Request: fold
Amino acid sequence: MKILVAYFSRTGYTEQLAKAISSELETRGHSIEYEIIKPAVCYSWFREVARDFPRYPFIAFGLLSSVYREHYLKSYHQVEEDIQALTYPDISEFDRICIGGPKWAQISYPVARYLQTIRGIRGKKIGAFATFGGPPLKIFEVELVFRPMTRLIERMGGSVVATVGVSSAYHDAGIMPLFKLFSYLRFQQPIKNFKLGTEYANKGIMDFCNNIEKR
Ligand SMILES: Cc1cc2nc3c(=O)[nH]c(=O)nc-3n(C[C@H](O)[C@H](O)[C@H](O)COP(=O)(O)O)c2cc1C
Reply:
């Protein structure tokens, strides 16, 4: 199959995941083209966080109430950011598309803009991948990035057939001690066990590629 791997990566971790997925798909005989999503202007992490910060208390409340979380995920405003011109603005020539980026509270802003910009997504099978600073907490990390991505993709007529989320164990804001604590509390494992190269990540990438290949 001809597969497009499109990704945004600010500090390089999602790029490593994109390369690991591509390398596995190439080993299986598929041909890969890349779309590297680049913001028009690169802002500091502080400014990026600040743009979405007023919504953080609502996310926190959603962790306490599943009813409110459902409401939030259906109605919140996704921040977007201008991106540079794309190599493949029309993706209709590809059999599958893998789209990834870091988790920025929800979808990272350049990826959100990318999803609204591309044409030819209707009827396509899409794989969504992400990295996040924390361990793979089911709601706070995994659900909060993949539910919004799925929602946007389905709104454009595509379907998400595979997802994989891996921890980078890195956060620009220096809150890793908190994430390390969560990792022990929730999984009784160090956060490094959820990074690329671990059994957890390798299985996630294999499952992702298996689902991408399904007809
Ligand atoms: C604006 C912003 C928001 C972020 N929000 C989260 C978050 O909600 N949860 C999390 O675990 N990490 C968060 N991070 C950390 C990144 O998701 C993490 O470092 C990611 O692996 C970086 O990927 P990259 O190197 O491809 O840019 C955030 C980082 C930034 C800059």
Notes: The chain has one domain: 2-213.
